[in-house]
Amino acid sequence: MSPINLVFRTLDITLLILTALVHVLHGAVDIQPFPNVVDNRLHPDLLSSSCPSEIYCHGKLLDTVQMMAIYQDSKTFVDMKMRKSPNETLASFNDFMEEKKNAPSKQDLKTWVELMFDKPGAEFEDWIPDDWVENPSFLQRIKDSELRGFGKILNGIWRELGRKMITDVRINPDQYSIIPVDHPVIVPGGRFSEFFYWDSYWIVQGLLLSEMTKTTRGMVENFLSIIQRYGFVPNGGRIYYNKRSQPPLLSGMVKSYVDATKDTKFAEDAVEILAREFEFFMNNYIVEVNGHHLAAYRCKSSGPRPESYREDVISAQVFEKEDEKQDFYCELKAAAESGMDFSSRWFIKDGTNAGDLTNLKCRSIIPVELNTILFWNALIISEFYSMKNDLQKANRYEAKADDIRKAIDAVLWNEEEGIWLDYDLINKKHRHYFTPTNLSPLWTGCYDKTDTSLPKKILAYIEKLELDKYPGGVPNTLSNTNEQWDFPNVWPPMQHMMIIGLGGMNSQETKELAFRWAQRWVRSNYIAYNKTKTMFEKYNAEELGGHGGGGEYEVQTGFGWSNGVVMDLMNKYGDRLTVGANE
């Protein structure tokens, strides 16, 4: 390492330590006003040391508890609060294991855990958002009275999904796996009792329609403060997620908030931090492909995912060598970082998408949506710098957006299919498999608006794959593997992505298809809710009103992004949507 780099690294580590001390002593950093932060050299150190806990992230205690499977869901244990300090907890565990001659029974271990830990949820207190309103104005735009009533129900669900951290989280942060933040949050629901990064984008769309601008701003400020502390936004609000992010949608959240409130000062204050997140991805996720630079999901940490520890260890048993197991754990984490955990989308076997989890090669696939979201980030950051009258940086980020768009067109566009496709770095070819993210450039506007032939190509692709035939929505893939991001599961954010993208094109045919899919999706959610009184995280393409299944855990209810998507579609198409059978 050169002397100059050594100085920078020393300064970085010093800043990291000081930031951590401030965080422990004073809780989450107050981000008003936002500081000017654009340097991202901290990232490699943060990734390697961001979860040092010998209880929640690695170590004998975690391994023993998770491998004994004392709880059905591995996430249960790592969400439990320690009743004593980490050192006291580890000492007690060592004494317990010595007493049991390192071979405790399952019941003995469970008894010890429940003596030393509180049940999940101990970090929260009851909280109802104080900016919740009973009849937000968007409801009046819904012509159908039954759908209007459904919209009112969805508006009420936010009261059930609110979470506020207790004061003790700040006083004793090392006894929790939760990442402390200043403001209450709306969580997805079910087993997901903390914020999740990309989920929050669609939650924000619903909150803004519910006129809950204070809650929205608080959630966005939480994310901005986390970038200040960690350099990026983790997958979720737990320390064991701190070695991976998710599709970077914070810039989109800020834009949604600013568009709804006209608070341009917020955009001006936030832009430096948003630029830091963008540069984090550009510095750490970019690979060269055919002379162009594009991003792929990444992982730089070792070991199983703490929240799915036992499942990962069992899946890795097929590998004989330790380095092969560690490589597999990284693939699992990279796929989890994508949000699509798991799917045949990330399988590479003999150049195809065949296989199972052991064929995960997510890090070797250039995904369409990650790159088009980065394009969108650069455009938004450019817009915010323009608001700040910093035209030099505005032009710089506009140029970055243009570079990404050109790379996407050069590498990911497939003229034969008439669509964008993921790219296989191993076999150096497009992956000719459907996933809704193939249409994601339409959602972010990452295409040539003057190309009058594009709508016909997109519609021909949809018709060829018969994507319009499914009564419960467009499935996430056409491969039935029992992975939860494969057929027949239908996911709310993907429906929203496609509908908004198609509806935004300069084509009456794509606009009508967007409406038809919106009608189908809202109706399916309405039917499912009337049958079950529940909003699900995923649904079933083969059944109007059927919920999804498969994957590592039972289908979850709540559900934040499902609510937000339906509310946004009801707001957009409320004058035409009906609960009747005729489309």
Total strand segments: 12
The percentage helix is: 40-55%
Major sheet: size, sense and barrel closure? Answer: 3 strands, antiparallel
Binned strand content: 5-15%
In what order do the strands lie side by side in the largest sheet? 1-2-3
Shape: globular
Low-confidence segments, given as residue ranges, are 1-49
Query: Over the alpha carbons, how many angstroms does the gyration radius reach?
Result: 23 Å
What structural class is derived from the secondary structure elements?
A: mainly alpha
Report the oligomer.
Answer: single chain
**How many helices?**
21
Q: What distance lies between the first and last C-alpha atoms, to the nearest angstrom?
A: 65 Å
Indicate the mean pLDDT: 91
Summed up, what is this model?
By secondary structure, this protein is mostly helical. The protein has helices at residues 3-26, 43-49, 60-67, 75-78, 86-99, 106-116, 145-161, 168-171, 197-209, 213-230, 250-261, 264-284, 309-316, 322-338, 368-387, 391-411, 440-444, 454-464, 492-503, 508-532, 560-573; strands at 124-125, 162-165, 185-186, 286-289, 292-295, 365-366, 413-414, 419-420, 423-424, 429-430, 489-490, 539-540.
